[in-house]
Specification:
about 400 residues, alpha/beta, Rossmann fold, Rna Polymerase Sigma Factor, Chain: A, 16 helices, binds magnesium ion
Length: about 400
């Protein structure tokens, strides 16, 4: 029996993870759950899964009336934590073996580090945590002996292809990208893209931020950085291919020229289940892939000029230190501004580029530096003239 905490239980990944937990009552026990501010939804999870501890993290949630409302759902003896420190409480409990980190953004970093330092397994869905604090995560693993299992579908695919293989044998990894809704469009048309169009992802159903990131290809850029830290490969060993069918979730090319890929229908419950049950494979809720029905699989080179977000991600890796932190933070603010109707679609990446070009990277080896770079980027973006 694995005892788990789910951070971000009411988000898209969190809800799918709860389906997986429910599917394997003899394997998975839900000990802790957190949400940002959805008290009612968290209350429903408590009634259904009976966790021992819950956390509500949004600053507004510390308001006593909301805490009381949540308290009314809790059976006696259930721990209730308010504010972001609650996440650390949920991961450091003695009775937690595995933590699924699926919160939005850099808030996932501190609990990831704490869990790894205590030797726990972290199933990581929050790529921003690794992008922003990759070096810290590497060190936390060394210090505490914890283990990181990727939940992002591409990285899960690579992780699966690497089972039983040595990293010495790896020549290159190839991340696939669906290309999002716009990759066939003329770049000149992108200026007028609406929020609704950007949120209509052709394949995956996901949260808003990641859906917009998929449309700009910034999501793939962040995934290149994520892959760099997860698998310890230099940027030139990480390639991106556009694959509109989203059936091949990524590939590994070995030194002998052989390539291994992981294929399945695009359904996040599969990588979530793999991470939670690893190394076991059991029948899942996911429909099996019918390759004859798919018919053909296409691949196309990802042009770095056409996809400036991807180019920026490689640039941030090259700059090193806190440059990826800044890339990620600036993107988060820019996407919010786009979703709020304050900037156009094409401005998202332009603004991020502007902020990144002003950044003098710090080493990124302390949490303070990473958080400082994150704050700097969020402040800096407000001074960029084209950000209005
Ligand atoms: Mg992905």
């Amino acid at each position: 029996m694995k005892r788990i905490s789910i951070l971000g239980a009411t988000g898209s990944i969190g809800r799918q993870a709860l389906e997986v937990v429910e599917r394997f009552p003899e394997r998975l026990e839900l000990v802790g759950v957190s949400a940002s501010r959805s008290v009612e939804e968290l209350g429903k999870i408590v009634l259904r899964h009976h966790p021992k501890a819950v956390a509500l993290t949004h600053p507004a949630s510390t308001d006593p009336s909301r805490a009381n409302l949540l308290g009314s759902f809790l059976p006696p003896g259930t721990g209730l934590y308010l504010g972001e420190e609650g996440l650390v409480e949920l991961v450091t409990r003695e009775d937690v073996d595995l933590v699924l980190v699926a919160v939005v953004g850099i808030a996932g970093l501190a609990p990831t580090l704490e869990a790894l330092r205590r030797g726990k397994t972290v199933a990581l869905a929050t790529k921003e945590a690794l992008v922003a604090g990759g070096k810290l995560v590497e060190r936390a693993i060394k210090e505490g002996g914890g283990r990181l299992i990727p939940v992002d579908s591409e990285h899960s695919a690579i992780f699966q292809c690497l089972q039983g293989e040595s990293m010495e044998a790896v020549d290159k990894i190839v991340l696939t990208a669906s290309g999002g809704p716009f990759w066939r469009r003329n770049p000149a048309e992108l200026e007028r893209v609406t929020v609704e169009e950007a949120l209509a992802h052709p394949v995956w159903k996901m949260g808003k931020k990641i859906t917009v990131d998929s449309a700009t290809l910034m999501n793939k850029g962040l995934e290149v950085i994520e892959a760099h830290y997860l698998f310890g490969l230099p940027p030139e060993k990480i390639e991106v291919l556009i694959h509109p069918q989203s059936v091949v979730h990524s590939l590994v090319r070995f030194k002998d020229g052989a390539m291994l890929a992981q294929l399945s229908v695009p359904d996040m419950r599969l990588p979530i289940q793999y991470a939670l049950l690893y190394p076991e494979r059991l029948p899942s809720l996911v429909r099996t892939l019918d390759l004859a029905e798919v018919g053909k699989l296409e691949f196309q080179r990802a042009d770095l000029e056409r996809f400036p977000a991807l180019r920026l991600a490689y640039l941030a890796l090259e700059m090193g230190g806190t440059a990826p932190t800044v890339l990620s933070a600036a993107d988060e603010v820019a996407v919010e501004a786009f979703l709020g109707g304050r900037i156009s679609f094409t401005r998202i990446v332009q603004v991020v580029e502007e902020v990144l070009s002003c950044h003098v990277p710090l080493s990124g080896e302390t949490l303070e530096e990473v958080l400082e770079a994150d704050r700097w980027a969020r402040k800096k973006i407000g001074t960029v003239p084209i950000f209005y």
